[in-house]
Write a structure and sequence with these properties.
Helices cover about 50% and strands about 5% of the residues. The protein has about 450 residues and is mostly helical. A three-stranded antiparallel sheet has the order 1-2-3. Strands 4-5-6 form a three-stranded antiparallel sheet. Helix 10 crosses helix 18. The longest helix has 26 residues. The structure holds s-citryldethia Coenzyme A (SDX). The site of s-citryldethia Coenzyme A has 21 residues, from helix 17. S-citryldethia Coenzyme A (SDX) binds next to helix 17.
Length: about 450
């Protein structure tokens, strides 16, 4: 749970005054360790009979958390206080998983034990393979992820008691460990190749690439460059405050649902093209644009209020400056493409020209629409041989760590209660039923 010491009952308060009656209500201002203060409105309805109104939660803090912090104006992202670019440069994904889950960087013995735990949970119950057979071969892998991850609760009953801290951690380790296996199986199923079992002698990222691309017919050598790039992509996608899918996991968890069901709900939410589905949408958009001379046409479509089209990979609810993840990915993009000898990848050149034009356009400048994490990830993943339909699956794989960390933080908070927002009702007032022959 976020430590109470982080929430300072500051001496500050804010007063809300009813313009008609002149009645006022004073609300406490709470201060975190860093970032915007919050106005504690928990007593508002009880004292005024009024709700606050904030569709999309643009100005609403849904919880207290000590896991991730974003400074949208400065383009800063911290995991447990550590800047994302330092972690991407110096750490590895299993260590970042430990950091997000437990709050501190592990000592060597702690890291070895954690890596061993995750490694030895990477296999799936053999019967789960039958779930895949129920899908059409052309099923979107995210549909498979939603179904199979939700079904895990039917196989791992011994880690579904959310009131047992040990079971919560076992479920967390199982989810982190099994997501790469399930993701790779979804891919293998879609191309009609046999599933590859995890290998305990490989690192997390190496094992994922091995399960994705190895075939029984020959030895598969994992490229260290691709494994390093994959590991970095996992780190960059691991957590991100109370984004839509994390909020979904918290809301599902607040009802007491088991962890596997909560993560399946997070996967479903992440799938949307406005959220995690954007990386797949970016690549489809770049392919639709096709050439540099068509960029202005699409930029104008994105600016046209009457056109629902938006430039995928641009804009963010919180970042009003560069998304630091996009900055890291942009650099990695060049390294990976150079290593793979696809430096002149036309989509990369198109993406860089689109970024240049968009960032010079006054609409994008005025609305502070910068490339986000999804803008470059698709280009790297495609260069690595990952099919477009698997991009959001990889996002879900990496974000599972953030989801389980946030879920544990919420369940471990003794003050947490079921999430149940209210509404501004604008429908019909009470009326009497009219039989059909009298309507
Ligand atoms: C992720 O929340 C997270 O942290 C998410 C994420 C994570 O790690 O979990 O960071 C991952 O989801 C990244 C975002 C990926 N989505 C996309 O790339 C899709 C394209 N982006 C947009 O859909 C949009 O920018 C959002 C959804 C990301 C943010 O939407 P907001 O915060 O609700 O902002 P908005 O829609 O109110 O936009 C503000 C203005 C609007 O114009 P006005 O109504 O003020 O005139 O900017 C415009 C929008 O029309 N705008 C865009 C645009 N994004 C916003 N116009 C054109 N192209 C865009 N991409």
């Amino acid at each position: 749970m976020a430590s109470d010491k982080a929430t300072v009952d500051s001496a500050k308060s804010m007063t809300l005054t009813d313009g008609a009656s002149g009645e006022s209500i004073e609300m406490q201002v709470l201060q975190g360790t860093v970032g915007p203060e919050v106005v504690d409105i928990r007593k508002l309805y009880g004292q005024t009979g009024r709700f606050t109104y904030d569709p999309g939660f643009v100005s609403t803090a849904s919880c207290e958390s000590a896991i991730t912090y974003i400074d949208g104006d400065e383009g800063v992202l911290l995991y447990r206080g550590y800047p994302i670019d330092e972690l991407a440069e110096n750490s590895d994904f299993p260590e970042v998983c430990y950091l997000l889950l437990y709050g501190e960087l592990p000592l060597k013995a702690e890291k070895d034990k954690f890596v061993h735990n995750i490694t030895y949970h990477s296999m799936l119950h053999e019967q789960l393979q039958r779930f895949f057979q129920g899908f059409r071969r052309d099923a979107h892998p995210m549909a498979i992820m939603c179904g199979v991850v939700g079904a895990l609760s039917a196989f791992y009953h011994d880690s579904t008691d959310i009131n047992d801290e040990h079971q919560r951690m076992v479920a967390s380790h199982r989810l982190i460990a099994k997501m790469p296996t399930i993701a790779a199986m979804a891919y293998k199923y879609s191309i009609g190749q046999p599933f590859a079992y995890p290998r305990n002698d490989l690192t997390y990222a190496e094992d994922f690439l091995h399960m994705m691309f190895s075939v029984p017919a020959e030895e598969y050598k994992v490229s260290p460059t691709l494994a390093k790039a994959m590991d970095k992509i996992f780190i960059l996608h691991a957590d991100h405050e109370q984004n839509a899918s994390t909020s979904t996991v918290r809301l599902a968890g607040s009802s007491g649902a088991n962890p596997f069901a909560c993560i399946a709900a997070g996967i479903a939410c992440l799938w949307g093209p406005a959220h995690g589905g954007a990386n797949e949408a970016v690549l489809n958009m770049l392919e639709e644009i096709g050439s540099v001379d068509r960029i202005p046409e699409f930029v104008n479509k994105a600016k046209d209020k009457d056109d629902p089209f938006r430039l995928f990979g641009f804009g963010h609810r919180v970042y009003k400056n560069h998304d630091p993840r996009a900055t890291v990915l942009r650099k990695s993009c060049h390294e990976v493409l150079d290593e793979l000898g696809v430096r002149d990848e036309p989509l990369l050149e198109l993406a860089m020209e689109l970024e240049r034009i968009a960032l010079e356009d006054e609409y994008f400048v005025e609305k502070k629409l910068y490339p986000n994490v999804d803008f470059y990830s698709g280009i790297i993943l495609r260069a690595m041989g990952i099919p477009t339909s698997m991009f959001t699956v990889l996002f879900a794989l990496a974000r599972t760590t953030g989801w389980v960390a946030q879920w544990n933080e919420m369940i471990g908070d003794p003050t947490q209660k079921i999430g149940r927002p209210r509404q501004l009702y604008t429908g019909a007032t009470q009326r009497t039923y009219v039989p059909v022959d009298k309507r």
